[in-house]
Every structure is written in structure tokens, then in C-alpha cells.
Design brief:
By secondary structure, this protein is of the alpha/beta class. It has 2 domains: about 130 residues, Enolase-like, domain 1 (2-Layer Sandwich), CATH 3.30.390; about 220 residues, Alpha-Beta Barrel (TIM Barrel). The chain is about 35% helix and about 20% strand. It has a 7-stranded parallel beta sheet with strand order 5-6-7-8-9-10-11. Strands 3-2-1-14 form a 4-stranded antiparallel beta sheet. A 3-stranded antiparallel beta sheet has the order 4-13-12, with no helix packed on it. Helix 1 crosses helix 3, helix 2 runs antiparallel to helix 3 and helix 4 crosses helix 5. The longest helix is centred in the N-terminal third of the chain and has 18 residues. The structure holds 2-succinylbenzoate and magnesium ion (MG). Magnesium ion (MG) binds next to loops.
């Protein structure tokens, strides 16, 4: 197939509640939807997910737009694509900028599947119709309100709760939730807020039977994570560190973690995500799907990918109404008994609600 046209919607959706992490707070999510069209008029969609501030990782929405327009789209010019795996190879000469690459790579996978009249999950091994899901909770220093939120999500059926933590907001919120929910699948995510000097303090987390401690240290640190993992009973999960399969190999060789939070955009797309998933299977690392407050498009992609049997641990894939008043899909994604149904249609299996998109965003042609 040949990419003949690329368009985008630039969208800004208000969040129902501001979301606070160890590094900052957001109250709306800006993102782009990339539309790629082939020579027959088939179309694929991919979501561009980076935040506006470079505080989760270095990539931002603005930097990604530049990389897409100046460096990635030209690499697709006049190119015949036999399989979406080739896209990742073409993009290899652009260093880093994984989320920019992923927006186009995943759109091309979606296009390829639609063109072949198949659902995206049909390209993956051992898939299921429904996936178990969890929810990530922002920092809420009012512990009564925090407990109310946890109770609400548990009642909605979410199978796992992830609590954002930072120094000064860790043991107390964890203890409050544990006391009320002794058997809850509970984990924490520090988004790099600690250092190795906090090791004695972090050891205190062991007594709360947390499923995972996500990303306690800096995004480029493998050694201190390994030192911590040796001292902890609880499994460490890496998020920000992992951009490539090589990063997983390094983390595994050093013993920096026992689990990987896999975000398709953070690793440049589906091709690398599949390699990482396979590596984790071989090495017995627990791999599960993370999130970036995706709109319905990224959410549908995550569901397709998470349909793989190997991803047993509930992902950060919530229903549309967890973050947004209105999603940009014609049918919002809903949770049922702690599971979300993997959309069944062609490609990622969802279609856009254009009126909603135009209410919150603008349409623009990038390439013809
Ligand atoms: O660290 O996993 C993270 C959200 C934004 C940025 C980073 C992270 C998160 C989440 C929530 O934890 C994921 C989601 O529910 O989409
Ligand atoms: Mg994280």
C-alpha cells in the first residue's frame, strides 16, 4: 500500500477532574488524531499522546508535531509498504521521538488491517474477547476523599487500583486503602519522585502487599532501580525507562525490575511493543498495558493489544467516562464486571464521532 494523504484532528478534551502526579497537574488533555489514507481511499487512525509539558518524559505534543511534519512524513513519501513492520524500520533513522513515530505507525497498522478486512487483534497470538482493567488515581491529599474514590472505582468493577505517590504522600494513603481493602490488587506509581537515598523509606512499602511499585527513580536510571529491587520483596515495575527492547534487556540483565508497564506510544508503536511482549514472556517479566489518558482511539488500540492472553495483569485502560465527559467515538468504551470488551470491527474497531471532534478540535491536511 501507499500513503497518499495524511490529515489530523488537533483536539483538546477537558478532564472531569484535574489529575495530579508527583511532577504536576493537568486539567485537560490535548492530543492529535492522525489519519492516513492509502491509494484506494482506505483510512487508518492513530493517536498522538504526549503531554504538553516535558515532565513525564522529554517528548511533548509540540516537539512530536515538528518531528512528524519535518522528519517522519517525508520518510513515507512514495514508499510502497507491504507490511506495517516496515514502517518502524523506515522511522529508525530518526532517533528517539517514539510517540511521534507511534502515532503514524499505529495508524498504518489500523489502515493495513482495515484494508485486509480484519480486526487488529487478528494479527496477535492467543487473544481474548474481553480484557481485565484497572484504574490509576491521581494524588488526592484528602484521604477521606481518596478512600471515597477508591470505593467508587472498586464498586464500578475496576480490578486493580494504582495510586500515584510522592515523598510525603505514600505510607499514609496506602495504609488507609489497605485497611479498608485488605485483598485489593493495589499498586503505586512514583513517576521518578524518589532517589536511592530513600531506600530505607521505600522498604517500608513491603508490608502493604503491593502488586507493584512503578518507577520510583529517574527515567534513565537502571542501577539504582537494581539496587532497590535487591532490597525489596515487592516487584518494581519500570515505565519511563523503557523505550526499546534494548532497555528491557538492560533492565532484565541488571535486575532493575520484575515488571514492565508497556505503553505502545512510549516504545514507538506496535512493532516494538510486540517484541517487548515476547521478550517479557521468555524472561518471565510481568508485562501489562499502561495508559496516557488516551481518547477512544488510543484506548481502542490498547484494548486490541491487551487482548493477548499474556497480558493477564489489569491494564491502565479505563472506560471513556473515567476521564472524559464525552469521548470522540461514535460508541464510548464501557466497563462491565471489571472487563472491557475488545472492539470487534475492522482495524482498531471504532469509528469517530465527527461532530464531537469538531466541537473540541480542528481538522487540517498535512500531506497530499
Ligand atoms: O505514569 O503511567 C503513568 C498518566 C499520565 C502520565 C503517566 C502515567 C499516567 C497514568 C494514568 O498512570 C494512565 C491512564 O489511565 O491513562
Ligand atoms: Mg507510570
Amino acid at each position: 500500500m501507499q500513503i497518499k494523504r495524511i490529515d489530523r484532528y488537533c483536539v483538546r478534551l477537558p478532564l472531569k477532574q484535574p489529575f495530579e502526579t508527583s511532577y504536576g497537574r493537568i486539567s485537560e488533555k490535548a492530543f492529535d488524531l492522525m489519519l492516513v489514507t492509502d491509494e484506494k481511499g482506505n483510512q487508518g487512525i492513530g493517536e498522538l499522546v504526549p503531554f504538553e509539558q516535558p515532565d513525564y518524559i522529554e517528548e511533548t505534543l509540540d516537539t512530536a508535531r515538528i518531528v512528524i511534519e519535518k522528519h517522519l512524513i517525508p520518510l513515507l513519501h512514495n514508499r510502497w509498504i507491504t507490511h506495517p513492520f516496515e514502517t518502524a524500520d523506515y522511522f529508525d533513522q530518526v532517533k528517539g521521538n517514539y510517540m511521534a513515530k507511534s502515532s503514524l505507525e499505529t495508524a498504518i497498522w489500523d489502515l493495513y488491517a482495515r484494508r485486509q478486512g480484519k480486526s487488529l487483534k487478528s494479527y496477535f497470538k492467543d487473544t481474548r474477547a474481553k480484557v481485565p482493567v484497572g484504574v490509576s488515581l491521581g494524588i488526592q491529599t484528602d484521604l477521606t476523599k481518596l478512600l471515597e474514590q477508591v470505593t467508587d472505582y472498586v464498586n464500578q468493577g475496576y480490578q486493580r487500583i494504582k495510586l500515584k505517590i510522592r515523598p510525603g504522600y505514600d505510607l499514609a494513603p496506602i495504609a488507609v486503602i489497605r485497611q479498608q481493602f485488605p485483598d485489593l490488587l493495589l499498586m503505586v506509581d512514583a513517576n521518578s519522585a524518589y532517589t536511592i537515598a530513600d531506600l530505607p523509606h521505600l522498604k517500608k512499602l513491603d508490608k502493604y502487599q503491593l502488586a507493584l511499585i512503578e518507577q520510583p527513580f529517574a527515567a534513565n536510571d537502571f542501577l539504582d532501580h537494581a539496587r532497590l529491587q535487591k532490597e525489596l520483596e515487592t516487584a518494581i515495575c519500570l515505565d519511563e525507562n523503557i523505550r526499546t527492547l534494548k532497555d528491557c534487556e538492560l533492565a532484565f540483565a541488571l535486575g532493575s525490575c520484575r515488571s514492565i508497564n508497556l505503553k505502545i506510544p512510549r516504545v514507538g508503536g506496535i512493532s516494538e511493543a510486540l517484541r517487548i511482549t515476547e521478550f517479557c514472556r521468555d524472561k518471565d517479566l510481568l508485562v501489562w498495558l499502561g495508559g496516557m489518558f488516551e481518547s477512544g482511539v488510543g484506548r481502542a488500540l490498547n484494548l486490541q493489544f491487551a487482548s493477548q492472553q499474556q497480558l493477564t495483569f489489569p491494564g491502565d485502560i479505563s472506560a471513556s467516562d473515567r476521564y472524559y465527559y464525552e469521548d470522540i467515538l461514535s460508541e464510548p468504551i464501557a466497563i462491565q464486571n471489571g472487563m472491557i470488551q475488545v472492539p470487534d470491527g475492522l482495524g482498531i474497531g471504532v469509528s469517530l464521532a465527527e461532530e464531537t471532534l469538531l466541537k473540541y478540535g480542528a481538522y487540517e491536511n498535512l500531506y497530499t
